[in-house]
Amino acid sequence: MDNYIDSLILSKVKxxxxxxxxxxxxxQLKTPKSIEELHQRLKDSGTKWNKAQLQLFLLMNGxxxxxxxxxxxEVNNLNTIILDIVDKVMDGKPMAPIKRVMDxxxxxxxxxEEEILKIAEQSGKFKIHTNxxxxxxxxx
Length: 140
Description:
By secondary structure, the protein is an alpha+beta fold. It has helices at 2-28, 35-44, 51-60, 75-90, 98-103, 113-122; strands at 33-34, 64-67, 70-73, 95-97, 126-128, 134-137. Helices cover 56% and strands 14% of the residues.
């Protein structure tokens, strides 16, 4: 039982670290940067990824675009897309499971449940149920 709990805790910690790393990258790429500049900024913030790992992430992430040798993200567009999907899934209902929202995310968008919950909550239009698995409309 202890091994199961330990692995569950470790899984949550890794998930939070991943979400934090993605947020740092998105924040850095609000303005276009070369791979070298971005890698240096991430190293300065304590990230241990090498340049090849970073480049693979940038190439695989559908929210990051490359123009010439510069990478950038359009996080605000991602937020709009996510909020539109949440609205569609809720379809006038007061709440919806986050799993149903995830099922409606297009395949070319890479986003975690945690990111969706954060985007929805930060919009002010939604709140997270205490169970952490359901989004609810915020009361005006």
